[in-house]
């Protein structure tokens, strides 16, 4: 069994399993490296805290794990040969995947960006060394969604171009691509309705942020286009399901609006907005001055 497995893994491009023949059972497991054992045990404690939503403990253990991972020679960027390379790479990838999801749970976008870029080489540079992770496309799609929320559209397309063509058929990647298309087209209703059909539970946080951005955009357009709207029309435009949701939104985000007698009045907001005069004479004088300077240079 051990010999056949070694040959199968070698043909498939994987390094030999850390098994050697010997003993009554035909094989003996090579003793695990003490550092790998320490990381594995600490990661077990992290997972227990993660499942229990004990985020302070998670952050504390994660910091310790990241320090310990620096002692593994096989990890990026060096990728040095090691008898435990497969185990080291696999457990490190698992740790960074959990770190990314933890940053979403704690709503820390800066931590998300740091942890994602530490995780990314385990997806792009270890193919053929360790098996692919079932969390790869959900996390890659999550990063695309983050870039969309932060309006980093150029980076969104750069990350998308780096994915294999087959990835575009994955529901998580397709979700982010369709959202970006709807957002660019101004089809805000499709963006808001997509909140109800997320492909992965971790997407809810960024979808809520995107929905808020879209609602604020719609609200800004509405108060410029109308003096008032009925409550029902305002709910429909902003995609709220109840009067209470609309009322809470107005109170928190637009205190200059007024809900009265079944209508939402924007006139108060318009009246309070100061009109800025265009300094026409100043602009004319500056333009003429620039023209004279150009004429002098020529």
Automatic annotation (TrEMBL):
Q: Which UniProt keywords are given for this protein, alphabetically ordered?
A: Proteasome
User: What is the official name of this protein in its record?
Assistant: 26S proteasome non-ATPase regulatory subunit RPN12A
Tell me which GO cellular component terms the UniProt record holds. cytosol; nucleus; proteasome regulatory particle, lid subcomplex
Which InterPro entries does the record cross-reference, listed alphabetically? 26S_Psome_Rpn12 (IPR006746), CSN8_PSD8_EIF3K (IPR033464), PCI_dom (IPR000717)
Which GO biological process annotations does it have?
A: proteasome-mediated ubiquitin-dependent protein catabolic process
Where in this chain does the record put each PCI domain? 110-282
Disordered: region residues: 1-26
A Pfam family annotated for this chain is CSN8_PSD8_EIF3K
- Organism of origin: Anthurium amnicola
The family note in this entry says: Belongs to the proteasome subunit S14 family.
Is Transport included in the keywords of this UniProt record? no
């Amino acid at each position: 069994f051990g010999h056949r497995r070694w040959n199968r893994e070698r043909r498939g491009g994987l390094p030999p399993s850390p098994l050697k023949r010997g003993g009554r059972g035909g094989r003996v497991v090579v003793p695990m490296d003490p550092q790998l054992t320490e990381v594995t045990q600490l990661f077990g404690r992290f997972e227990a805290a993660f499942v229990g939503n004990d985020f302070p403990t998670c952050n504390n253990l994660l910091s310790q794990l990241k320090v310990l991972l620096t002692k593994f020679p096989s990890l990026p960027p060096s990728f040095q040969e090691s008898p435990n390379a497969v185990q080291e790479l696999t457990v490190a990838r698992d740790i960074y995947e959990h770190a990314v999801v933890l940053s979403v749970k704690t709503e820390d976008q800066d931590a998300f960006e740091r942890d994602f870029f530490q995780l990314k080489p385990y997806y792009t540079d270890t193919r053929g060394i360790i098996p692919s992770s079932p969390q790869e496309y959900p996390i890659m799609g999550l990063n695309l969604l983050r870039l969309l929320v932060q309006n980093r559209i150029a980076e969104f397309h750069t990350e998308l171009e780096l994915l294999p063509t087959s990835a575009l058929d994955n529901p998580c990647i397709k979700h982010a691509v369709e959202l970006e298309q709807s957002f660019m087209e101004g089809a805000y209703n499709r963006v808001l309705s997509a909140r109800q059909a997320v492909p992965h539970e971790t997407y809810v946080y960024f979808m809520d942020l995107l929905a808020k951005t879209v609602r604020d955009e719609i609200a800004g357009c509405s108060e410029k286009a109308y003096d008032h709207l009925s409550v029902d029309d305002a709910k429909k435009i902003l995609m709220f399901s109840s009067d209470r949701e609309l009322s809470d939104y107005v109170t928190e985000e637009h205190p200059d609006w007024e809900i009265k007698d079944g209508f939402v009045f924007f006139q108060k907001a318009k009246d309070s907005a100061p009109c800025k005069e265009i300094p026409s004479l100043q602009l004319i004088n500056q333009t003429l001055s620039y023209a004279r300077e150009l004429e002098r240079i020529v």
